[in-house]
Specification:
Layout (H helix, E strand, L loop, with lengths): L53 H33 L5 E17 L2 E16 L5 E13 L2 E8 L2 E3 L3 E16 L1 H12 L4 E14 L2 E2 L3 E11 H5 L7 E4 L2 E3 L1
Antiparallel strand pairs: 1-2, 2-6, 3-4, 3-5, 3-7, 7-8, 7-9, 9-10, 10-11
């Protein structure tokens, strides 16, 4: 009897389906290596840039320029026709008479005070045939060598076309503090009848033509270097008209 340990053991059979090839499992020969160079290039989509409508912009600028040019031409034509019809002229102010009946210096406690009285007569002329002037809030400033000799207000008045109006002004100062040297120098000139005055009139004026009347605008009348002796001899100095900072003779 043989020894059971020496009897050979046969191998176990393979499980069913083990010997069949798996079609889903790729073999070494069926594998394929793909390089990036084999993919087709992606087409680039061109970027469309929006072009500005040059033609429409140029047309808009041209029509705008044409509109403003036509408007300017229209107002220039209207202004020329009005100027030819009205022939406007600035008002004229001249000093008809001037007198200083009082010029006194009072010294008190090492201070000098000035007392003056000034009489002025202006001739206001409007030489326009169709334009009138209306003056409001007239203020008068009288000085000599920058020393105040008086301030006064004048009542409002109106001037129609081709009108002459005499404006009377009485001004002066009372106990006005002044430098002692300046006061004495002006006093000597007054006694010698060599005093020189500067008169400034500031007013608000309106222009009217028929029933039409404009808004108020400022006007300044400058009457400079008025010599008492010359006015006493019959000379009538003309004042300069200042409009918007422009001085007209």
């Amino acid at each position: 009897m043989e020894d059971p340990a020496k009897i050979p053991i046969p191998p176990l059979p393979r499980p069913p389906g083990r010997d069949r090839p798996n079609p889903a499992a790729p073999t070494t020969n069926n594998r394929r290596r793909v390089s990036f160079s084999e993919f087709p290039p992606i087409p680039k989509t061109p970027i469309k840039r929006q072009r500005r409508p040059c033609c429409s912009t140029c047309k808009c600028c041209m029509w705008t320029f044409f509109f403003f040019f036509s408007l300017l031409l229209f107002f220039t034509l209207i202004g020329s026709l009005l100027y030819a019809w009205a022939r406007p002229m600035l008002p004229e102010f001249r000093v008809e008479r001037l007198s200083v009946p009082k010029f006194e210096l009072v010294t008190n406690s090492h201070q000098t005070y000035l007392k003056t009285e000034v009489h002025l007569f202006f001739e206001a002329s409007n030489k326009n045939d169709k334009i009138g002037f209306s003056y409001d809030d007239i203020r008068v400033f009288v000085s000599s060598e920058d020393v105040n000799l008086g301030r006064e207000s004048v009542p409002a008045f109106a001037q129609g076309p081709n009108n002459v109006t005499i404006v009377k002004i009485r001004s002066g100062v009372s106990n006005s503090l002044v430098d002692n040297g300046e006061g004495k120098r002006l006093k000597k000139k007054f006694e010698k009848k060599d005093l020189v005055l500067d008169v400034e009139l500031r007013a608000a004026v309106r222009i009217f033509v028929g029933k039409w009347i404009s808004n108020r605008f400022p006007i300044t009348l400058l009457c400079e270097d008025i010599h008492l002796s010359k006015v006493a001899a019959g000379f009538e100095p003309v004042c300069h008209v200042s409009l918007m900072g422009i001085i007209f003779n």
